[in-house]
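Lab notebook, page 48
Experiment: co-folding of the full assembly
Goal: obtain a model of how the components sit together before planning crosslinking
Operator: M.T.
Materials (sequences as entered):
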Amino acid sequence: MKMAMNQLIGKTSGFILGLIAFTYVSVTSFSWAANGEELFTTHCATCHKVLESSTGPKMQGVRAKWEEGGALEGSLHEWVRDWSVAAAKDPYAASVATWSPTAMSKFGFLKDEEIEAIFDYADNYTAPVAAVAAGGGDAASGPMEEESNSWVWILIGIVFVGIILAVGGVRRQLKYATVENETGTAPAEESYGDEIRSWAFKNRKFVGIIVLVVVMSGLVYGYLALNTVGVYHNYQPSQPIEFPHDIHAGVNGIDCKYCHNSVERSRTAGIPTVNVCMNCHKGVKGKDDAQKEKIAKIYAAAGFDPEGPGSYTGETDPIVWNKVHVLPDHVYFNHKQHVLVGGLDCKQCHGDMTKEKTARVVPVEELSAIEGNIKLTRPTLTMGWCIECHGEKEISNGPVNTVGSGYYDEIHRRLMDNDKELYQKYLKDDKVTVKELGGWECAKCHY
Amino acid sequence: MTENNPKDLAAVNAKPEYFESRGEIAPQELSVDEFLADERLREASTDRRDFLKFLGFSVAAATLAACEAPVTKAIPYVTKPEDVTPGVANWYASTYYDGNSYASILVKTREGRPIHIKGNREFGITYGGLTPEMAASVLTLYDGERLKNPLKNGEETTWSEVDGDIKKSLGAIKSKNGKITIVSNTIISPSTLRVISDFSAEYGNVEHIQYDAVSYDGIRQANKDSFGMDVIPSYDFAKADTIVSVGADFLNGWLLANAYSVEYAKNRKPEAGKMSKHFQFEANMSMAGANADYRGMVKPSQYAAVLAAIAEGVGAGKISGIDTSAVKDMAEVKEAVKALKSSKSKSLVVCGSNNKALQIITNKINHALGAYTTTINLNNPVAMFKSEEAKMMKFVKDVLVGKGPDAVIFYGTNPVYTTPNGAKLSEAISKIGLSVSTASWNDETAANCQYVCPDHHALETWNDYAPVKNHYGIAQPTIKPLHNTASAQESFLVWAGKANRKGRESKVYFDYIRTIWEQEGFTRQTEFADFHTFWNKSVHDSAMTVPAEAPSSPEFAASLNGLAGKLPKGGDVEVVLYQKASMGIGLQAGNPWLQEMPDSLSKVTWDNYITMNYKEAKDAGYNVKLDQEHGATLASVTVGNETFELPVIATPGQASGTIGIALGYGRGENGEEIGKAAFRTKEYGGYEMEEGKRASIGKNAFRLIDISAGYMSYDVVGSVKKIGGNYPIAATQFQLTAMGRSSIVRETTLDIFNKKNETAYNPPHMLTTHHGKEHVSKFDLWTSHPVEHVGHRWALSIDLNSCLGCGTCLIACQSENNVPVVGKDEVRRGREMAWLRIDRYYKSEDELAVGTKKEEFSYGALEDNIEENPSVVFMPMMCQHCNHAPCETVCPVAATNHSNEGLNQMAYNRCIGTRYCANNCPYKVRRFNWFNYPAYKKFTEINPAQDDLGRMVLNPDVTVRTRGVMEKCSLCVQKIQEGKLVAKAEGRPVKDGDVTVACADACATNAITIGDWNDTHSEVRVASEGKRAYQALEEIGVKPNIWYQVKVRNHDNAGLDAAQVEKDYAHHGSEGHGNEGHH
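Observation: model returned without errors.
Model output:
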């Protein structure tokens, strides 16, 4: 019995040590080439793959190839920023330009070290073989990272509990051995529970404080956890078509309102209908298999036969999207009010979609980091977030929106004419905010 | 820590005496050990306490998991229809016609679903006038019991099968030259008439009988005799300075009542200095009677005497053989004669009887007054109500004796329900070789037919109409047919071999109409050069009115001699069959909105009843003081061979010796599927059953129609016998009077209004202070809300003179705001959810006018001693949006609070349901959600939100409130926000008309005006500063944002004249009352 216990402890310890080592490795693998990877996925991955050619050539070994090919110094960086400039100067670059009829997008904003980081990443990249590597690869996309982190912490927790148990076990065995040595008889085995109880009783002040701290922190964390219920932090559901906003709004520079065209007319911005997609995709059929596969889904929905005479079959099948920005039923939100009248830019609430793939609920930190946005602190799509903005946003006396200000001028005039004192109170912070004109009132959004 | 304590187990294993005594039931060997035979189960530490822990944990976990919203799907169109923008409502002009009423309407659709109907004020002949039935018809569209497929012998089948069968049978009948009869309601559609003539041309021997449930044939026959014109003329109530109505409820149900109401109200604005003078002679208190300046209570058998007395008085001649002695000294008759003589041709006399002789006398009076050149236009006749009573009666008689036609097609009519001998007819239909119905439900008639070929709902189909000579209307579909139905016209064309079925997207009848309009309409106009533009314009307006031919007065040719013998006979108890505003002739009895709509006068919901003279009922021992627990006494009515039991409601204003029974009830007597709400439900859900069938609400009063004199008479003679009992009555208002409280209702006469200033009839509320009298608005418990200065202040002005009490606003409110239906039992308990109610106040004997006490009065008399023939005031009552709202201060969670636009807003998600607010509301307009109406079994039968179809009518802009929260009128805040957004988007201030609320929108008489009070030029601001403006319960200082306008009656009231004297409020100065410009 005793031996078995000791063996078990030994085995557990080994396993735990192994786990610690594993965790350490996997944690460190997160930081490895993170910068280059992030830049690559954000800017390059639409057209380039690391290990094989797609729309653009494969990225691994490009630096070496250019060096071997006799490209001029710094020519590669110039190519990345604006391929046409490089091609004009460097004959090697000019030869690369013939690789594909599709021209490469321009990335003038990338710094030298960033470009180097991208190529570092590409050159050091190995195909994901183990689950650990895959986890590391995916970690760049927000929600996954969080999840794997929490698993790491749970593992560490288990390890620590294991260590405590193991150490405790060893200590007990030692104690028994000592007692046996001293008295010659084996002591009556105390159960763990009895032992802990007697220990806790002896140290009751210490235990009391610990319990208080644990209970208090439990309450605090519980409260904070409850506050996250229903908060769509970085919510990015999978979509039937992985729609790349970065290509459409970013690379191709399509205005948001072209597809979300009821944003200035309706409470909803409108998920584009398939016929809107078909305006372009009747002609744009995709460069590689991945794109073709996605676009084929549009054709299937529209009942369009690209191979045939290019006609519609009439058999349509609507695309079932997963809603991203979900407001509760008792909340009324109107895009027309905010975009047309309030003159807000889409990115104030939706982030910079020129850099996003499928839509997600962009966390407030990211939103506030965007230039020109009103800086907010409460989680995106919560009521706190809405009214925080209503407390900040100014409704000036003068043109406030794209359609003129006749409405708000009258509101300001009434304030000035009828209640100067109140108006001055409102103007203490030099602006009349949405809140001061009733933007914090229940029935503005709940009815 | 295992708790499998052996001691405990032993105790459990012991054989309890309890088990022993029960012998076999619990075998004694079965110990807990064996019961938990599985060792592992016994070893498992899941004992009771742990189980509770797990339970607690899983509940908590499930709760938390439920907080995480599920993935929501969003499915955009594949190809978006050009004119549909998700989230934006589309309005389509269309036309409502059900055989009994007509209106040009506007239908609101959201994402292709019709969700609301209002009147079309811009085009047509109905001026936006609507009836509750029309407004509620949008819900009928989603009735789950509508037929979803054609039926053959009661079984669902396909169109090809029924068409094949019917064509085969018709072909066989044609080959032996058999007779085919089409029975329909009055068809006013030119295209449909053409379809039927196409059908007739194909089959030769086709008889078309038009038959209306409520017939106005008497008017046609009288005009034929009087002027040689078989017409119903156009009436113009706006042009009449004196209106005399004898038994005609021209404000509800009678002919084009919805249009007449608007015309009538136009001439009832005292600010013009004059008003029409309205005399009503009737037995039942009708809507017209309730609004009359003078109301004479007479029995239907006395109508002739009243008319004869008036005829004699205005110099139209003495009608021989009519004894006028009983009525000629009635004050109302004398006043009527006086008024008619002074207004001469600007008079209008109408009679509601279907008796030809009475109508001839009416014609004679109008002719003598010269009304045929002004208020009555024989040259612009109404094409509706062409009921061929004689033909129909013969048809029924023939069918009953088995001599009917070889085939019958019922189109838009339900004679088994609406004919007096319908019960016999239902059995006799089977004697006809081929019987087909085009009804949308498997209704009383259809259930007896071999084939039912369901017609579309009116909102699903095209049609055209010509209700009046100078007017054409178009009905356009606002939704694709929900079910596998087909327009009846298409069916006729298919059976005639002129068309083929094209499924739900069929354009057969659309193309047909368009062709007719191209041939007949386009060629007769000059405005449009091409047909396409003409057609688009016609559909856009859905109403085309050409100038009417001027009225002219032809020679009066009828003989007045011998009329006396053809008049209706009286009897002990005269029974008046009338139409309720909500139920009409029962076409939409399955519509829960209409069933739950309180009757304009009795305020009773979900029921049919006998209205009886208040005093007679009291004397005969009927319960006259109804409340939650004290229901009505039952009585049995016998007319001819028909006897049935109904509860008795003592009704002020009912002529002694008469009773009234509403038509339109007793639908589905054999449990036919005509809509779930047409049947009585039990207290906790489920139907009440009678003989294994669902028991219908009320009794079918069509059975009482008297046809013995050769015409359909709706005033019949019978007898009443008291039965007793305590029949529960669900009414929204049991109290009858305003208890003389002028702070609620204010009434004056036109004379006083014209001659005295407002301190006489609309005095401000002054409070006595140490430095004299001060206006109540100067005293404040609270600091002021800054609503007078900032932005908007939404306000209503409600004109008690223009409110006729019809109740269309109630349905409009229900439809706009997703107000749940709660059923009879809940209404009885006072838990109705309506955000808007219309309070009805009768005048008591101790009042000079409604709301004005006599100098000497007793509270008992104010409450109980209703005048036998009282005047009535209707007062729409909704949340008053008090700026110092008592409800707001008592809410512990600030769920109800004030907006700086003057709205008393209600945040449902904050509400914890304490109901303090409702208790503190002086107007009692708050409603508490007692149940989960869209799911609880008690409401399955009556709440439309409990099935997928019914939910489609919900307004997506308004939350469906949940159990446990308060709700109330939000002043249609969603429409306010929408209206503001229109102004904002156009970059201009809000102007009148931008913002509207459902009730104001539905009210074509403009009794309700909404606007921005802070806009000094707005209509509502001007109205609120008018001489008639007052606020309900102003003295309690809650500062409502709703103003009422004093009711003005155009009659002599000496007592009131003496009581309403001008007062001097020097301290008050020139400030109006209720203005809040003092802060």
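Interpretation: The CA atoms of residues 111 and 195 of chain A lie 64 Å apart.
Next step: discuss with group before ordering constructs.
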